[in-house]
Amino acid sequence: MADTHIPHPDLPPPVSIVGPIGWLRRHLLSSPLNIALTLLALCLLYIAIPPLLGWTVLNATWSGDSRDACQANSGACWVFIRVHFDQFMYGFYPDGQRWRVDLTALLLIFSAAPLFIRTVSSQTKLRIGLSILAIYPIIAFILLTGGWFGLAIVETSQWGGLLLTLVIAGVGMTAALPLGVLLALGRRSRLPAIQTLCVTFIEFWRGVPLITVLFMSSVMLPLFLPAGMSFDKLLRALIGVSLFQAAYMAEVVRGGLQAIPKGQFEAAAALGLGFWKMMGLIVLPQALKLVIPGIVNTFIALFKDTSLVLIIGLFDLLNMVHNATTNPAWLGFSTEGYVFAAAVYWLFCFGMSRYSQSLEKRLHTGHKR
User: How far is CA 257 from CA 121, 148, 297, 319, in A?
Assistant: First the structure.
């Protein structure tokens, strides 16, 4: 007799353990304590969100050219941001020359865009990255400072706002990573002279606050230079920031090097690889991959620490906002300015954080425990 049994399809899982309901049960309602905390969080959100939404959006003033436009509403006066927006972005950069800042930013965006496309091969990305590091700083320097090809000279003392923040952070990040890698390798060197030199450098720069470094680079350094010789104030700040962050970056990279199993070094030596080939081809790629969170954390800290350049008379984004709030015509609108500055800082820092997380997932090869 033929088998008449017909298998039935599998039943779908209960809605209580999958989908939105399952997520809520697992993460927010899994125990009496979690239920109480969820209710408390909802209560706090109910108390905080309506007034915040009313101040920032519903009762805010968006149009106008003076503070008089904000008198009728009780919410935020975003007219303050709109009136001072160019100042926040460019600082004291001349109005007729600001196209040079825009062109510099666009060149970086379009040239670096292939680095974020997954279909582009690693070899191509490496060539593009090296080309940007070699060529772009020269182009950016010519465009921003002028004096070449008929461009008017713009002193660095006129730079400010987000432009100055990105210049200091970008140069600091670009210089700190390779210098930090070399310091980390030197600290692990078997040569006593190199190891002592690197340890001394790292511990010295990590032992002083950044504000002291900036103050010394601006005030004390000229005292040790020959008569008639001087460095640009921004250049001194860039050197101080780069050296300061390189010391912290060295410790981050050293942590990654120590996490690599000893067998990797022994295998590279067994293949007959020299020190630099072993580091460049085998050890450093694995170490840098492991410390991506630490590297990005250092970059984020640097991006926020750019506000300390006020101590040497440079006005980054936060300091330009503070300067605008002291304008007698706009007294009383500091909250809107600081909220705007916080939003810009958060946007850049959150972008770096999210990109680092996606980079970790893409480079994950089994080290995660």
Answer: 27, 44, 18, 39
Residue 11 binned pLDDT confidence (cut-offs 50, 70, 90): low
Amino acid found at 240: G
Distance CA 52, CA 186 (A): 52
Q: How sure is the predictor about 369, in pLDDT bands with cuts at 50, 70 and 90? A: very low
Q: What is each CA distance from 56 to 49, 50, 336, in whole angstroms?
A: 10, 10, 9
Give the count of beta carbons closer than 10 Å to the beta carbon of residue 205.
Answer: 19
For residue 320, give the 3-state DSSP assignment.
helix
**What gap in Å lies between CA 166 and CA 185, rounded to an integer?**
29
Nearest to 237 by CA among 308, 150, 137, 339: 308
Within 8 A by CB and 6+ apart from 333, the residues are 67, 70, 77, 80, 325
- Element spanning 160, H or E: strand 160-160
Q: How do the domains of the chain map onto residue ranges?
A: 84-93+154-363
User: What is the pLDDT at residue 244?
Assistant: 92
pLDDT in tens, 252-286: 999 988 888 888 888 888 888 888 888 888 888 88
Structure tokens at 244: 């300061």
Farthest-apart Cα atoms in the chain, separation: 110
Report the CATH number of the 84-93+154-363 domain. 1.10.3720.10
Model confidence pLDDT, tens digit, residues 206-236: 998 988 888 888 777 777 767 666 778 888 8
Annotate 198-212 with DSSP letters as a single string.
HHHHHHHHHTS-HHH
d(CA 45, CA 246): 41
Residue 5, both tokens = 């049994």
Give the containing element (helix H, strand E) for 316.
Answer: strand 315-316
pTM, entire model: 0.84
Query: Tokens 């103050």 — which residue?
Result: 215
Neighbours of 132 (CB within 10 A): 17
Read off the pLDDT of each residue in 130-141 and give the average, rounded to a whole number. Answer: 89
